[in-house]
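Lab notebook, bench 4. We co-purified these components, and the gel suggests they stay together. Before we commit to crystallization screens, I want a quick structural picture of the whole thing.
Request: model the full complex, all chains together.
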Amino acid sequence: MSNNYIVELEDVDTIYEGEKIPAIRDINLKIKTGEFICVIGPNGAGKTTLLETINGILPSTRGKVRAIGQNIKKFGHSLRKKIGYVPQEMAIDELSPFLVEDVIMMGRFGKIGILKSPNAQDFEIMEEIIKWIKIEDLIRRPVGKLSGGQLQKVMIARALVKKPKILLLDEPFSNLDIKASQDISEKIYHLHLNSKLTIIMVTHNIGSIPVNSNKVMLMNDGKIIQGNLSADDFRLNQLKSLYEVKD
Amino acid sequence: MLSSFLITTLIGASLAGVACSLIGVFVVRMKLSSVGFCMSHAAFAGSALGLVLSINPLALALVFSSAVALIIGPIAEKSKLHPDVILGVLFSLMLSLGLIFLKFSPGTALSSSAMGILWGSILGINTREIILLGIITLVILISMKLFSKEFRSIMFDRKMAEASGINTKPFYYLILLLTSAVVSLSLKLIGGLLIFALIVNPASTAYEFFYDIRKIIIFSPLLGIGYCFLGIAISFLFDFPIGSSIGVVSAICFGISVILSPKRRKG
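Here is the predicted assembly.
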């Protein structure tokens, strides 16, 4: 494996505990720094498993996974301080005793390190992200009282507050209305445009593939079916298949 | 004479109230009630075995409840077994073992030591036990101060805490071991059958009123002390067992808190 890639997966399988069939299998993937990859596929294709295998929350059962040049199994905790993750859904009970600002700052706790408290700089970074995502009016609200879309924005802020090198987005538009969806889509677009952030975004909705994604990967049944399409090629293929146009 | 006896009792009650209700903040939030419930009955079984073997009951209570923490911890952690199954099997096993051990304890099974384990006997609490309770209370407070970030993060969502780069395992086991120590050391106050009331009820009541975990951490031990004092007063007035009085008082207060909870108000 070379050091030119920020994410590298080599012959990777991941099997959930108690299961026999891998949720993802034979995954070979190389992502360069600053690339924006969009992973698309139907429900149950293994998209979420792929993201959680990349950040090591789900340990792979076969193959090698490296992020930022290091083995995720060996250096998982220190690597996750540099990898932002926005899960698809979070089951937060309505009475949850946490305020939005606390939840956002928690994203930075790993980076701050043990036995240390957040300092002025940490709060400054958090405020910057909150303003950028435009959720200033939410910060003193209980997290359990948020709508799905508001929670999604909070979780994106939480992932960004650690100033990650890799951002993993699992269906970031799934709970958003059209306006909020466009708003977040624009934010992600600008985030990628203005920084060297590597983004891997999972979606099942072809319409939500961002215009600036470098590559579209198609997953099904735990495997990468097509791994190297440009966003334009992917859309063209979809249109051809929709209107049954032959080459 | 009265003042020295009363002061000892109240100090013991205050320390147990603080320690139990602080650990309760974790137990309630992380849904560890079934694990903690098993620990309290393991501590009861350990104490009973201590009486049989003439070994310090407190030491064996600690060994038993810590062993349960270390055995059940990984099972509960990976959700290989539903918490109800863990509770059903281990709770009955530990209670049965405790009662069998009591049958073989010196003297009659209903000796004051044996009854003390079951129902609590804070009036017989000694200086050494108060010092131990003081130490565990201090350890909990220091741990909560030092690892405040990590504990809060785990209480919000353990998987997301891992995703932010926190190694949650040592903190999870620290919580379990502190719970087992608190259960064992508070056993004499409220008894093996009811110790969990003092762990779960004050924290559950505090959760009804606040959305800020920091306020819950402050309010829960205050309630714990209040319940203990009220329970002791009722016990003196009506000659009820202290553990039962604390259990009833704390349960009634929790019921009232659910009715009055601003979190459950509509609009």
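Helices of chain A lie at 47-54, 72-80, 100-112, 120-133, 148-160, 178-194, 231-242. Worth comparing against the SEC data before the next meeting. The radius of gyration of chain A is 18 Å.
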